[in-house]
């Protein structure tokens, strides 16, 4: 059997998202709006399979074929008759649920591959004897032959997502290196093109020079079209001795489905902002234009306090090894009014709280653009995973001038709160009950501060295309050097493009640090209803949770490549290092032996030293983070951040050794079952499923009732068309499904 870190355990936690009451309170029109937005999100989410690994679309198509013909209970009878044990069949269900939940065969949180926890030969016997294989023998056999080796392979390069020799990615062709990624980013910057909706494919031209295809995601391809802002970009370029060809049409049939449902949603929009937002999204996905998506995002920001909230597009760049390309995601959610009222109070206090942050006023935005901040119950969240909170859009220029929205996902947080005492690792016994009691409330506070005042704070110093600066070069002084500002962002440069591989993690670290720093503010705690001893317990558990998370983060570090696979967890490890460096016994991490005789560890936080020792250390660190970000000082930022992110076996902590202990005692991330909506006549019904691997599978089996087989054919055809860019599955027969 495979190493435990590459399988999903049979007892993995599976939880259902509860949104029944929020959905019940929607009007018929709001339900129709939510339904069509949900359909658009689910269709678009299929693109993530093509953004993850070469084999993911084939695995998805195979599983969907199997479970459409026989539901999990029916398939169980067949599997047991073929010789599988109950444990092996459960392992197969968990694997299938994992593929659906992560939209591929790599974990969304950590980018680690997971494989079926049963013998390949046994699984083959089951698959080839299923009802699906009897109905469509050639298609099922072809799908299995295409993906079976890669489904199980754990050769070193395939264990993690990454670029070149570091791992596998389908954002880039298999022969691309980090140098190619940097060159392509410089090219995109030179043409004022965003990388968010692109993939990069490398070849060699007839004259022997490197040739790169920058392919934009769009419904339209390269056929002659009416002039738009994108058509002039679709051509060949020479750049630094290489050929670049900008094309479009990536994921075209999938995006066509997205556009169709966005068009339908427009008929049920609540106001003109929503109508114009959807019109621009349609333009963006049709033409391949990020500028159109930005325009749509402006209307989205202006749409304050909607009953049905949503966002859709190529959004988060965590899984691009270079940190610039966005994974498709779409969410639809309904407002939770009680928690939203607390967030509104936090927003009202934001300008005052921003003054508490440890950097000079010149390093803060000229004007705080009051954002929406709502707590939402998720109806639909497509993509590779579901976050607890969101601060979007990610476009730097919009965030600086138009603002942003903050979203806390209440029913997702409720799943995150669910903690079993016996599975609570690395804490002292006397801390466990306190942790369980206050983890939820402290997480509400941390998410609120992280999203609103973490991601929502700080200014980028920019020189625009006309040479004008958005700061006073004469009077603004760098507090770290005492000198005038020496560096800034040029026209076309963004935070992601400039800081690339560390951008996401660095920004998450800054936001997490702001949350820890400001949770010490009594005004903040009063907003959330905590005073006196309760307030002190919330602070303690919030800091304790961060310190523990820093230790748990070691699961996501790869010693062989000295690299981190998850931005948020790298950020938490960095904060742990900062607090350990503060000394004076604030934080200790001690190797121990568990009651089972195996290696263990204990994290201790001295609550009496949080303010006198922890706060000043965090203050110094936060100021450095912000100054380096504001000034675009990539060299200084990398030196600071990568220094803290280094994992060694130096005493006293011996983190590399502790990593083995963390892996030994790790708990797999929970799987989340989401509902479906179904249009019956003019009414929208909510379909809910049990909290189990089988329930999660059923939710996906019923997700595309009208066109499931067609979608699977589309996915495999798209994967086959690009198979030549990776060594496997290069033998995939054309047009299979």
TrEMBL record:
Cellular component terms per the entry's GO annotation: cytoplasm
Record: active site: 451
Binding-site residues for Zn(2+), renumbered to this chain: 450, 455, 508
Location(s), subcellular: Cytoplasm
A single MF term (Gene Ontology): aminopeptidase activity
Gene3D superfamilies, sorted: 3.30.540.30
Organism whose genome encodes this protein: Callorhinus ursinus (Northern fur seal)
EC number from the UniProt entry: 3.4.14.4
Cofactor: Zn(2+)
Keywords: Acetylation, Aminopeptidase, Cytoplasm, Hydrolase, Metal-binding, Metalloprotease, Protease, Zinc
Record's keyword annotation contains Disulfide bond: no
Pfam families: Peptidase_M49
Stated family: Belongs to the peptidase M49 family.
Coarse class of the protein's main subcellular location: cytoplasm
Reaction it catalyzes: Release of an N-terminal dipeptide from a peptide comprising four or more residues, with broad specificity. Also acts on dipeptidyl 2-naphthylamides
Protein name: Dipeptidyl peptidase 3
GO annotation, biological process: proteolysis
Note on how the cofactor is bound: Binds 1 zinc ion per subunit.
């Amino acid at each position: 059997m495979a190493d435990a870190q590459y399988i999903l355990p049979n007892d993995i936690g599976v939880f259902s998202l509860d949104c029944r009451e929020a959905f019940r309170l929607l009007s018929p029109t709001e339900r129709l709006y939510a339904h069509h937005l949900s359909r658009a999100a689910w269709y678009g989410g299929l693109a993530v399979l093509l953004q993850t690994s070469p084999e993911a679309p084939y695995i998805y198509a195979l599983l969907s074929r199997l479970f459409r013909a026989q539901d999990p209970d029916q398939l169980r009878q067949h599997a047991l008759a073929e010789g599988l044990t109950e444990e092996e069949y459960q392992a197969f269900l968990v694997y299938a649920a994992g593929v659906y939940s992560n939209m591929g065969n790599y974990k969304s949180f950590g980018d680690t591959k997971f494989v079926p926890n049963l013998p390949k030969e046994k699984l083959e016997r089951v698959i080839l004897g299923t009802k699906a294989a009897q109905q469509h023998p050639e298609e099922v056999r072809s799908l299995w032959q295409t993906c079976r080796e890669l489904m199980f392979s754990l050769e070193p390069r395939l264990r993690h997502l990454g670029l070149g020799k570091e791992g596998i990615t389908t954002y880039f062709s298999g022969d691309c290196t980090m140098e190619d990624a940097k060159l392509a980013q410089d090219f995109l910057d030179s043409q004022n093109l965003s990388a968010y909706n692109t993939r990069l494919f490398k070849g060699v031209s007839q004259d022997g020079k490197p040739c790169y295809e920058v392919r934009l995601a769009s419904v339209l391809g390269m056929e002659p079209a009416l002039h738009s802002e994108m058509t002039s970009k679709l051509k060949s370029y020479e750049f630094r001795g290489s050929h670049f060809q900008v094309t479009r049409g990536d994921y075209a049939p999938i995006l066509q489905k997205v556009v169709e449902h966005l068009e339908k949603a427009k008929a049920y929009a609540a106001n003109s902002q929503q109508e114009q937002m959807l019109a621009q999204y349609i333009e963006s996905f049709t033409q391949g234009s990020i500028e159109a998506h930005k325009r749509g995002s402006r209307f989205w920001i202006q749409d304050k306090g909607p009953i049905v909230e949503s966002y859709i597009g190529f959004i988060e760049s965590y899984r691009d090894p270079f940190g610039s390309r966005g994974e498709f995601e779409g969410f639809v959610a309904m407002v939770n009014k009680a928690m939203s009222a607390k967030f509104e109070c936090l927003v009202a206090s934001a300008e005052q709280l921003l003054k508490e942050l440890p950097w000079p006023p010149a390093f803060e935005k000229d004007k705080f653009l009051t954002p929406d901040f709502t707590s939402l119950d998720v109806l639909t969240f497509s993509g590779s995973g579901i976050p607890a909170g969101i601060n979007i859009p990610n476009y730097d220029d919009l965030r600086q001038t138009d603002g942003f929205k903050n979203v806390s996902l209440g029913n997702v947080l409720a799943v995150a709160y669910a903690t079993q005492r016996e599975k609570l690792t690395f804490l002292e016994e006397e801390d466990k009950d306190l942790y369980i009691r206050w983890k939820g409330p402290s997480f509400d506070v941390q998410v609120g501060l992280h999203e609103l005042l973490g991601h929502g704070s700080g200014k980028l110093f920019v020189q625009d295309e006309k040479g004008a600066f958005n700061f006073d070069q004469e009077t603004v002084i760098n507090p770290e050097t005492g000198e005038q500002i020496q560096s800034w962002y040029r026209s076309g440069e963004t935070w992601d493009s400039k800081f690339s591989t560390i951008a996401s993690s660095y920004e998450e670290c800054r936001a997490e640090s702001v949350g820890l720093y400001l949770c010490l503010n009594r005004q903040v705690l009063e907003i959330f209803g905590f005073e006196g001893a309760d307030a002190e317990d919330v602070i303690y558990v919030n800091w304790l949770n961060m310190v523990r998370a820093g230790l748990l983060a070691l699961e996501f570090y790869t010693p062989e490549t000295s690299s981190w696979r998850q931005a948020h967890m790298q950020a938490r490890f960095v904060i742990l290092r900062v607090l350990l460096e503060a000394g004076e016994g604030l934080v200790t991490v001690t190797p121990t032996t568990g009651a089972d005789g195996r290696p263990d560890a204990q994290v201790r936080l001295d609550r009496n030293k949080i303010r006198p020792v922890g706060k000043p250390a965090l203050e110094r660190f936060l100021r450095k983070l912000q100054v380096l970000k504001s000034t675009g000082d990539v060299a200084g930022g990398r030196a600071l951040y990568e220094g803290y992110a280094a994992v060694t076996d130096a005493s006293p902590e011996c983190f590399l050794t502790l990593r083995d202990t963390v892996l030994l005692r790790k708990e797999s991330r929970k799987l989340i079952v989401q509902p479906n909506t179904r249009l019956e006549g003019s009414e929208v019904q909510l379909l809910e499923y049990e909290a189990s691997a089988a329930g999660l599978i059923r939710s996906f089996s019923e997700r595309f009732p009208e066109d499931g087989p067609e979608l699977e054919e589309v996915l495999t055809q798209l994967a086959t068309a690009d198979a030549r860019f990776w060594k496997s599955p290069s033998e995939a027969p054309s047009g299979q499904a």
